[in-house]
Specification:
alpha/beta
Length: 826
């Protein structure tokens, strides 16, 4: 629905050249003071400092900040620097991603006309667009950007391109005939709107609304008030962060209480608490998530999908509804002739080409001019009927251009024939021959969503006594790959919802051809025609209220509020406006719906890899925490120092975790249903695996530490425990790639990065034990050849037991094995 513009107190015209009801300078000045400048107001943007502060909202980040501060206060400089570096890197990446997203309103403001031609004091004058006021008369010509919303008072073959507002590329013919008060925006043929452009002709229009009271201003308001939604990944990680923080604080409190009850010195108790905190927190998690998403960005770029906000990569993987524009995304964006009716198709197309102002390119596949006329010329060219040949053989003598009231055009040529084309009803009213069956054919074509034109010829200069040659059905056909992509989305459990400015009949026909609406399905849920900007926002909010994860595509300014409101906004890279791209999370470089579905598969694979890496990291932390807690309970000294734990978490755990996120996605990612929006990152099965495998790591290392403590002393015991737990966690990374398949079934060489990282980390671990400087830094001893062999063999114990457990599960219950790296049974 259009804006209900209030009546404007406009002084009477003072006449004169350029008048047509124009204002005097005095009246314009008064109205400018009353209504304010003709510009879009912009809410105060988020300051860079607020964006930076927002990077520290996560409970996990708070926990790391606390560990960093306490470590620095106690003089543990290496610990503080390591943790601080991680926090700084994570904050900078997030800051630059969000800072770029604050430019949508600036792009919207750039769409308004910088200058406008109006009638003032009886003369045509050029003024800054911000000085246009209600009551002004705009003087419009081809190529002008309309400076305000206005009612047409004079039109000469006037049409405007309203794609930024309606999303439809076909120019809209303008007339002085009043539109119904409740007409939707796409059908308000008596009005022109701010930010649109004049496609053809000229005219005058009296301004009814300026600035934020225009249609464009209303969109600006919707864009400013649309809420950005936290992505599922952000929600899940925040939930895990809270769980880890509460668990960490609880364990630290218990151990500290035990220490004080035993009479241990307070400083020793505090250091013990710090050690446990470091053991509990996966310091490498922020980096793992960032790298996983960044790798996804690279892979999607190869698929013509450009990611603007990193969390959008994973959000795609749990999308349940894709709300998409039609023109150019699901369809080719090019009008073509899809049906012909009449006794002689060639004569029909020859006459249509003879009644045209468009021009075809040399390849005969595109052209300039009205898209409908270009479609007619392309169809004629396929039958070797070229307008250039027509112009040579039958030069035009006279032209009666298209008029929105007549709804037809005619060209008289040197052969004495008047060639006519136009709306079926109008042409039939002037025809005296060839009309039998035409009305029925028109009804049938229109029912299939085609735009139908009638083509006729006459013997006089007047558009009377015509002979109908035939009817032409024109439409923007579906993309072949879009039909396949919609089917793939349906198999993946994703609903496709088409939102368009088209007529409902056309929209539903296209939806059926694409497979968006199947037999027995409610078309009203899947197809929204004649959609206004607030309708798109309403549709997105409605799906969100139902619990759906919504992706929204768009190219026009009218789409920007809905793109920002959706969980993931997808802008068109070719036809999209700068406003739309700035409001989006990702951009389709090829404007192709099929690219969205391909990106969904990438997103699902990324989630699997993040979950896999997270489980690997938390299992390591659980093992370290159980090891430290077990030592505290039996009264042993801590097997590992805080610096040892940081080394394990950042290097020997962190590097493999980063390699795990590069695992190739499973081949069946698009055969699964979407994850439920409320599904946690780690469910009961995953947490149970984390605890059991962590206890296995801890028990293996604790046995080595206890034996060495009794036989070699605390320093050598810590040295051996440090090496054993590092090797155990490194070898366990191979088993972490799948909870059901053995590591040789997955393939040792299918992830060469992981293999390389494990080999490098083993070498690094040997290195810090053998170099005097690093031994002193880590407070450890050297490893003999025998000790090295012993540590490697014991380190293989956990991974061997894990692989044996997979075999046992296959034998005991082959059909009910739950994969802890997935939410499905395998």
């Amino acid at each position: 629905m259009g804006v209900d513009h209030p009546p404007v107190d406009v002084p009477p015209s003072n006449g004169g050249d350029g008048g047509a009801g124009g204002l005097s300078s005095a009246a314009a000045a008064r109205l400018l003071a009353e209504h304010g400048p003709n510009e879009l107001t912009q809410k105060a943007g988020i300051s860079p400092w607020r964006i930076l502060a927002g990077q520290f909202k996560s409970p996990l980040i708070w926990l790391l900040l606390g560990a960093c501060v306490v470590s620095a206060a106690l003089g543990e400089v290496a610990d503080a620097v390591a943790i601080g570096s991680i926090l700084a890197l994570n904050a900078l990446v997030g800051f630059f991603q969000e800072f770029r997203a604050e430019n949508a309103m600036l792009a919207l403001r750039s769409m308004t006309a910088p200058r406008a031609r109006v009638s003032r004091d009886g003369h045509a004058v050029l003024i800054p667009a911000v000085e246009v006021v209600p009551g002004d008369v705009l003087l419009l010509e081809g190529g002008d950007i309309v400076a305000a919303d206005a009612r047409v008072i004079e039109a000469h073959v006037l049409s405007t391109s309203e794609a930024p507002l309606t999303g439809e590329s076909t120019p809209v013919d303008k007339t002085t005939v009043p539109a119904p008060p409740d007409a939707p925006l796409a059908e308000r043929h008596d009005s022109v709107f701010m930010g649109t452009s004049v496609a053809t002709g000229s005219g005058r229009a009296r301004v009814l609304a300026t600035g934020m009271r225009t249609e464009l201003g209303r969109i600006a308001h919707l864009l400013a008030t649309a809420e950005e939604t936290a992505t599922p990944l952000q929600t899940r990680l925040a939930r895990i962060g809270r769980v880890l923080m509460m668990a960490c604080l609880g364990i630290v409190a218990v151990v500290a209480g035990m220490g004080l009850w035993r009479g241990a010195p307070p400083l020793e108790v505090l250091m013990s608490a710090i050690s446990l905190a470091v053991a509990a927190v996966p310091e490498g998690l922020p980096a793992v998530v960032t790298i996983a998403l960044a790798l996804g960005v690279q892979r999607m770029a190869a698929r013509r999908v450009l990611i603007r906000k990193l969390p959008a990569v994973e959000t795609l993987g749990c999308t349940t509804v894709i709300c998409t524009d039609k023109t150019g995304t699901l369809t080719t964006g090019v009008m073509v002739v899809r049906d012909l009716w009449g006794p002689d198709d060639a004569k029909t197309l020859d006459a249509a080409a003879a009644c045209s102002d468009a021009e075809l390119a040399q390849d005969q596949r595109s052209g300039t001019g009205d898209p409908t006329e270009v479609a007619l010329l392309m169809a004629a060219a396929e039958r070797n009927l070229r307008r250039a040949d027509i112009e040579k053989a039958r030069p035009r003598v006279d032209v009666n251009p298209f008029d929105a009231e007549r709804r037809m055009m005619s060209i008289r040529r040197a052969d004495g024939v008047l060639y006519v084309k136009g709306a079926v009803e109008n042409v039939l009213a002037k025809a005296v021959a060839g009309t039998e069956g035409a009305e029925q054919a028109n009804t049938e074509m229109a029912s299939r969503g085609l735009r139908v034109l009638a083509v006729a010829v006459g013997d006089s200069a007047q558009e009377e006594g015509l002979r109908l040659l035939g009817l032409v059905g024109i439409a923007d056909p579906p993309r072949t790959e879009a039909i396949e992509a919609v089917a793939a989305a349906r198999r993946a459990g994703i609903k496709t919802v088409m939102i368009t400015g088209d007529h409902p009949v056309t929209a539903r026909q296209i939806a059926r051809e694409l497979g968006i609406v199947a037999d027995g399905e409610d078309a009203d849920e899947r197809v929204h025609a004649r959609a206004a900007p607030e309708d798109k926002l309403r549709i997105v909010r409605s799906w969100k209220e139902k619990g759906a994860i919504v992706a929204m595509t768009g190219d026009g300014v009218n789409d920007a509020p809905a793109l920002r409101e959706a969980h993931i906004g997808i802008a068109m890279g070719i036809t999209g406006t700068e406003v739309t791209r700035e409001a989006s999370d990702m951009v389709l470089a090829d404007d192709n719906f099929a690219s969205i579905v391909a990106a969904v598969g990438e997103g699902r694979g990324i989630f699997d890899n993040i979950r896999k890496s997270l489980m690997y990291l938390l299992t390591g932390n659980a093992g370290e925490l159980a090891l430290m807690l077990g030592a505290a309970v039996v009264g042993y000294p801590f097997p590992l120092l805080p610096l040892h734990l940081l080394w394990i978490n950042l290097v020997t755990d962190g590097f493999p975790a980063l390699a795990l996120v590069t695992d190739p996605p499973d081949g069946d990612v698009l055969a699964r249903p979407p994850r439920h929006p409320d599904e946690p990152m780690l469910g009961r099965a995953q947490w149970l695996t984390v605890v059991l495998v962590g206890l296995l790591d801890a028990a293996t290392t604790f046995w080595v530490f206890a034996w060495a403590l009794q036989n070699r002393g605390v320093d050598e015991a810590r040295t051996l425990a440090f090496a054993v737990i590092v090797f155990a966690e490194l070898f366990r990374s191979f088993a972490a790639r799948s909870a059901t398949r053995l590591f040789w079934e997955v393939g040792v060489f299918t992830n060469p990065r992981l293999l390389g990282v494990v080999v490098l980390s083993v070498v690094l671990q040997f290195g810090i034990h053998q170099i005097p400087a690093t031994r002193a830094f880590f407070q450890i001893g050297a490893l003999s050849v025998v000790d090295c062999g012993f540590a490697l063999l014991v380190g293989l114990v956990p991974v061997t037991i894990i692989e044996l457990a997979k075999v046992i599960r296959r034998v005991v219950s082959p059909s009910k094995v739950l994969d802890p790296t997935s939410s499905r049974s395998v």
